[in-house]
Amino acid sequence: MGSLDQACLTGFICRICCDLNKIVIHAFSDEADKIKLVHLMYDFLGVDVYLNDNLPKTVCLACAMKLRTHYEWVQMIRKVKKNIDRRRNSDSEEPNQKSEHS
Predict the structure, then answer these.
(1) Domain tally, the chain
(2) Residue 24 carries which DSSP code?
(3) Structural domain boundaries enclosing 31
(4) Going by C-beta distance under 8 Å and a sequence separation of 6 or more, which residues neighbour residue 98?
C-alpha cells in the first residue's frame, strides 16, 4: 500500500472524516453535482471546497450517505414545522372569524 502522501495526491482521503477509502466521490464530478455534495458540505458542515485548494476533493460513500441522510432529516423537520405553523395560523384565524359573524 502507498504512503499517506500518495493517497492524498490520488484523492483517496475523505474530506469529511479523513479516512483512507478506495471508493470515493470526487466533489466536482457529475455524481457529486447530482447530489449537490459541495453545497451540502458547505450548508450543513461549513466546509468550503475549492478546486485550487490543497485539501482532498473526495468524500467517502459513508460520509456522503450520512450527509444526504442529515439533509433529508432537516428537510423533514422543516416540512413539519411549516405544517405546524400553517395549522397554528389557521387555528388562530378561526376564532376571529367566528366572533366577526356573531
Answers:
(1) 1
(2) E
(3) 4-101
(4) none
**Is the Cβ–Cβ distance between 24 and 14 less than 8 Å?**
yes
| Residue in the structure block whose three cell numbers are 372569524 | 97
Binding-site entries = 14, 17, 60, 63
The binding site for Zn(2+) comprises: 14, 17, 60, 63
C-beta contacts of 85-94 below 8 A and 24+ residues apart: none
> Beta partners for 45?
none
For residue 19, give the CATH number of its domain.
3.40.1800.20
At residue 3, the pLDDT reads 46
Q: Which amino acid is at 65?
A: M
User: What's the pTM value of the predicted model, to 2 decimals?
Assistant: 0.72
